Every structure is written in C-alpha cells, then in structure tokens.
Amino acid sequence: MLKVVEISECFPNKFKPVWGDFILQHVKALSEYCSVITIVPLRFVPPREIFAFNPLKLFSNFYKWISDLLSTSDFGEKNLKVIYFPFFSLPRPYFDSVNKKFTEFFFYNSIKKKLLSENPDVIYCNWISPWADVASRLAKEFHIPLIIDHHEDIPTLKKLFPNDHKVILSKFTNANGIIVHSSVNKSDLENEKIELPEINVIYLGQKFPVIDHKKEFNFSELKLVCISHLSEPRKNIDVLLNSMKDISMKLNSKLLIGGDGKLKQNYERLSESFSLGKIVTFAGSLSQKSIGEILDKSDIFILPSFPEAFGVVFLEALAKGLPVITCKGNGGGEELLKLGYPVILAEPNSAESLADSVLTLAGDKEKMKSMSECGKEIVTRYFSWGKNAQSTYDYILNLTKIYNAN
To answer: Is residue 82 part of a domain?
Structure first.
C-alpha cells in the first residue's frame, strides 16, 4: 500500500480544536486510499489570545493553554496515523526568518527517526513555510518525491515576507509536484517566473451534508453571516462593517460575524463607533457544529477577503443553500464563477461596492433562490473530501511512478 507522510502545523489540537480541521478531513479521506502518517509540529509559544492585564486571568489562560497542548496526544484510525511533534520556538515572524537553520538543527533528526521505521513513498508538505526545507531534506534522504500543497495566496506571502519572499518562493523548486486549490493561485504562482514543477489544481472538500430541500429565506429580516478568523486585515472585516452602515439604513437585516483572533476587539470597537451594536453580533470562536447551525439559520453569506487562495467556508455556505458574496480576484469566488456558480463579486476593499452587492441581491428574491439551488449542485459535483482524496491519490500515485522510473 502506498505510504504518504504529510506535514502540517495547521491541524486541530486541544487548545484550538477547529484549527486546520480541513487538513484533518483531507488526511482522513486520503487514508481510505493509502496509508497516511501526518506529522503535526505543535508550537509551544504563548499565543496572543492568552494574554490579559489581570494577573489571575493571565495565569488561568496560560495554565489552560499549556495543559491543552500537553494533553494533545497522537492518535490513529485504520490507515491514518497522526503524530504530534511538540517544540519550543521563537515567536513569528522571527521563527520564519530563521526557519531553515532553526528547524533543521532542532527537529530534523527527530522527525527522521520517527519516519525510519515507516518507509514512506512520498513526502507531502502543507504550506511552503516553515517546514518545506525539512520536508525537502527528508525527501532527498529517503530518495522519494516531495509534493508541496500551497494553501497560501502569493500576495499574502509577499506581504508576510517583504524582504524574503523570493527566497521562500524558491523553495518550490525543490518539489517534484505542487498542488493548489484554485486557478487564481495557480496563475499567481506561474507568474512568478521561477522554474517550477507541474502545478495541479485539486479542489478541497467540505464536511456538511448538502441540504436536500429548498432553502427558506427570511425576507422580512435577512440574516447576513460572515465566518472567518479575525487575525489578518486581508479578511476585510472593517470593509464589511463599513458597508453595514449603508446596508442597515436600507435593508432590515442583522449581521453575525463568527470567528476569533487578535483583531476582534478592534472590529468590535469599530462596530460600536458605527452605532451597529444592535445590528452586528460577534459570536467568537465556533465549533463546526455551531457553524453549521448558524449557516442553517442565515440567508446570505459574505466574506470580502482579498487576497484569498480559496476559502473552504464558501463551500460550507453553498452546502447549506446560502448565496455567496465575495470579491473580484478572490481565489474561491473566481473558481466558483469559472465552474458556473453565479457568485456575486464586489470590488476589492470597497465598502460601497460591497453594500451595493448585498442590497442588489437582497432585492432579488428569485436570484437568491436560484443561487441557492445552483450552489448546492456545484458543491455536490466538485467539492467533497472523497473527491479531493481520489484526485490527490491519483496525482500522488502517478507522480511516484514517474519519479521511480527516472
């Protein structure tokens, strides 16, 4: 049986039980076709969200954080094995700026030792930074191919590493194959004019059952919803809140924003400054079950993030029958449009355009209904973890055959 070693720091743990859930769904589905060993680097650096001015609160938060991480244990089921790899590191971005020497010095031999008995056929690295160097060295030492699954969009990568992005992008040249999840992401990577292996677009999946009935909309008071982490400005939650000033004056509606992150308090203050306290609700971090329940009760999904590599949450909204509004140039939105879904694409970073998009859609009941039905068909046809696993397995199998033949 083909044996795949995946590396992903983004993966659920007891402190962040929904973080990287889509990677968990991916490896579980892939393990139906082959053996999958997932190495999860578990960083012991106190996250921003545990800090508090109150010493007792700080101690309580710190104790919960360290207890949750220490109690996160390896697990396995059928052909899947998940190995958590605890390590202490510098805070980012300092860790990323020295990642090659740091990761290789502290972790390479330990990871190699764990894999010696596994005899893998391929190394599959999720994200280019910070683990691609370790993955590349492992692949060379085991004489097996390396696949990089590039979940990040290129503009964000350049913004995160303004001085080092060319060095980071050069890591792609060590791969034997690259996987991305939208045509926008593929095009952006190809435009970097570096020598790359074949880039393959493989669609992600989503875990909610596609509703088997017609979506019922509450046209008397439309419930708008946005699900996103609140850690990066590129998610444009401030643009969404700005748009709600206009929307709330012309449309009887409420907005729920689900998600947490370092910018949450800033957005809450911004909402209050716009006098949106009775219209906008910040729900905080949500379980997958809660996300499903919220989507069931909502009418329109909005995520104006730009740039964006894809966005699994778009698929979850479609599965629940919600019309989707996002931005032009958004990887997920553009890919859905390419597949025949009439997604509403506002101008990036424009509160006025976003408000117009919401108000226009809200005024067209038939379009909302047709978008709902079309979205369910699109997500059923293209976006399931089973389809993702089948495509990934076929790609890996073909790549290993070519590699071993040379």
So the answer is: yes
For the chain, the domain total comes to 2
Has residue 96 got a pLDDT over 70? no
Predicted confidence at residue 250, as pLDDT, reads 97
Give the domain range for residue 320: 222-382
Whether pLDDT at 95 is above 70: no
Task: Classify residue 216: in a domain, yes or no.
Answer: no
Can you give the pLDDT at residue 111?
A: 85
Q: Please tell me whether residues 182 and 231 are part of one structural domain.
A: no
243: nearest Cα among 350, 143, 343: 350
- Give me the pLDDT at residue 101, please: 65
Q: Is residue 168 part of a domain?
A: yes
**Contact yes or no for 87/111 (Cβ under 8 A):** no
Judge if 298 and 374 occupy the same domain.
yes
391 vs 19, higher pLDDT: 391
Give the lowest-confidence range in 65-79, 104-118, 233-247.
Answer: 104-118
* 40 and 113 together in one domain: yes
Q: Are residues 117 and 51 in the same domain?
A: yes
> What is the pLDDT of the chain when averaged over all its residues?
91
Average pLDDT over every residue of 93-104: 58
At which residue do the structure tokens 């190699």 appear? 112
More confident residue, 54 or 134: 134
CA distance 279 to 271: 9
Note whether residue 153 is domain-resident: yes
